[in-house]
Amino acid sequence: MSISCLDDDGLRIDALARILEDLGRKNIVPKYIYTIPTVQNPTGSILPRERREQLLALTRKHGVPVFEDECYADLTWAGSGPPSLYAMDPQQVIHIGSFSKTLAPSLRLGYVVAVPEVMNQIVACKREADSGTGALDQMVVAEYFSRNFGEHVEGLTQTLHGKLDAMVEAVEREFGTAVEKMWKPKGGIFLWLKLPDRVDVTKLVGPAAKAGIAFNPGPEWSCNPTTSKSHLRLCFALPSKDVIRDGVAAFARVCFEETGIPERSANIRRAGS
Ligand SMILES: Cc1ncc(COP(=O)(O)O)c(C=O)c1O
Fold this sequence. Notes:
The structure is a single chain. By secondary structure, the protein is an alpha+beta fold. The protein folds into two domains: 3-133, Type I PLP-dependent aspartate aminotransferase-like (Major domain) (Aspartate Aminotransferase, domain 2); 154-269, Aspartate Aminotransferase, domain 1 (Alpha-Beta Complex). Helices cover 41% and strands 15% of the residues. It contains seven helices and twelve strands. The strands form four sheets. The chain has a four-stranded mixed β-sheet with strand order 3-4-5-6, with no helix packed on it. A hairpin with a 6-residue loop joins strand 7 (181-183) and strand 8. The two termini are 39 Å apart. The relative contact order is 0.11. The model has no long low-confidence stretch (mean pLDDT 94). Pyridoxal-5'-phosphate binds next to loops.
């Protein structure tokens, strides 16, 4: 699925309908549609309820199940959003979530929700693949989250939203109008940006790393690498607000040295521009 199948509300159902019709003409039925309806990665959009209904109707019509990855659904700024696709049509949807974003990635714990016929097949595959998941980690998460989930997630979401604000301010200050588009996410842990076409972000990875900065170049986050070479994803989960501010300033410096963009940071014209 190319990034052009997305808009600011997430998956475009008209684009998906065209793809399914094209495949249908070749007698191809996809095994499933994978999608991230809530806090799409990398654009941070939330698929509105109406589109969720359209998606379910369309995939029912074509006999294609939907694989719903909701690992960011607990981390939205506005609290509860539209219902999950699974809640709207359990027969049609396999729902997965993760504790990587709400508690700790290193736990490697997630979950699947599906109707029993589907679940039986998934469990059989999982046993074969990795002999099951460690019981102790599951017991620790179950024990902690059975009492603290709401409070923990509320605090975490507030912290993440504050860090996003710090990052957006820093990007506006350091990059100014050099940022052609900023997708302010409705939750989650990352910000997706578009710089001018003449900036190839893949060439910034090395110099940025030398300056101690890691970022995600657009082509690694898109099914269409050629149209996303000026996009990038910045993650704000782990660093403090001060580290975020310093990091964005240092990244703007690297970007200017390599590409001449941004010409101004904090409204000051850079030397040599
Ligand atoms: C959309 C999405 N799904 C799944 C994962 C992976 O989650 P886990 O750490 O549970 O394997 C990520 C991690 O970044 C993600 O962004």
